[in-house]
Amino acid sequence: MLNFLIRRTAAGIATLVVALFLMYLLVDRAIDPLQDLIESTAPNKQQLIDQRIADLNLDVNVVVRFFEWFGNLLTGDLGTAWRSGRAVDSLLTHAIGSTLELVTAATVLAVVLGVTVGIVSALRQYSAFDYVIIFLSFLLYSLPSFWVAVLLKQWAAIGFNDFLRDPVIAWPVIVGVSLLVGLLWSLAIGGSPARRLQVLGLASAANLAILAYIQLTGWLERPQIGPALLAVLGAGTAFAVVGVFAGLHNRRALWTGLTVVVLGVALYFPVQVLFDSVVESHWVIFGLAVLTAGLGYLVGRLYGGPDWQLSARTGAAVALIMGGLVFVDQVMQVWKPYFEALDGRPIPTFGDRTPNLGGNYWVQVLDSFTHLALPTATLVLIAFASYTRYSRSSMLEVMNQDYIRTARAKGLPERLVIVRHGFRNALIPLATVVPIDVITLLGGAIITEAVFARPGMGQLFVRSLEDAEIEPVMAYLLVTASLAILANIIADIVYATIDPRIRLDA
Predict the structure, then answer these.
(1) Of 75, 390, 417, 503, which is least surrounded by CB within 10 A?
(2) Whole-prediction pTM value?
């Protein structure tokens, strides 16, 4: 591993230097810092041109200017944007922060939803559910992102804000949506007609109960989870996680998950006090998340047994989900003052922050979430289609392999065949796709950022090109090129981790 990292790092640095040199030459040819002065009608135009040439060293050979810039880079100086006079590192820091928020949310949601739906679609090959997913995937993949973004601004922002003035859902709509959700679940679960009818009834009833609860309690006006709903969602999560990864027959894993849920509900009110008094940054939340996962892992370890590691991983997963629900509940508690501060229109259509909003840490988090909603949904809808297709095709290929037939012939349960033998190997192609996609998005979702006016990396690049500022452009290229090289190294490591046949030091 060490030899691999040394070789790839050395090759990556050499590639980065050559790429930066070539890009510097191309960017220098593409921009003209004198364009506005050449078109000027000022009487001292030539004097202004000469002054700018001297200020920007435009009379120096471009190769010499590159090595001057590169030498400054090695000392940590990224230069200054000459039009605004702002340091490039400050511009880059804000842009990276805005883009990182968007990329993290969009990538996690797209991968989880896309891979899950794609694998279920593969397991239900040539069924009605499979055909529906194939149709939706191709439809979403073919849609231009700017068109999706504009539709979301119209219906998910403006339309939803109008709806919140009088958030009443018609009962025929509730019944229709519940039946549709139940139908999708019955198609996804599959089985005999009797089983499908049973799933249809249960899923429709559950969805009807949820929507009726939202309607009758005025939940949309003051959303919250609370201890009771936390217990219900936590129990459902525990059964789902155990059922998929351990099997409900594994009593230790099941009791681990349910114990973690009980602990989460018991600690609900003490955690509220902790959130109000201690939490002031994302780093504190990250530390609490690590502590939460460790607690869940410890519960599984204490239950013991020959497969205690499976119980421990189950406990950690359930604990993280419970912690996430408590975090979301805390954010929801500031919804009403946030809603009133924005005059009843809480879903914004541009920017990444509300100017002069004020408020504590939780208000700022909620404001960040609402600004992320639409651009994240845009990227998720587009990426969901590709991840669904990748995971479906990969799972179909894996399930036709000889070792899958051997596992079934040995009498292993179908759940075990799919999760332990099929799922892991189906992730191998995604190990090379996801890191590259993440780095591509870190370079800036230029169209999405433009539609929603998010000051991210893409907008920094476009604006700097328009202003003929080479230092911010080169800083952008430095970050994206470095991350691209890093993504390839990470992809190789993940690939080798998933597939034990791969040896990095071979």
Answers:
(1) 75
(2) 0.83
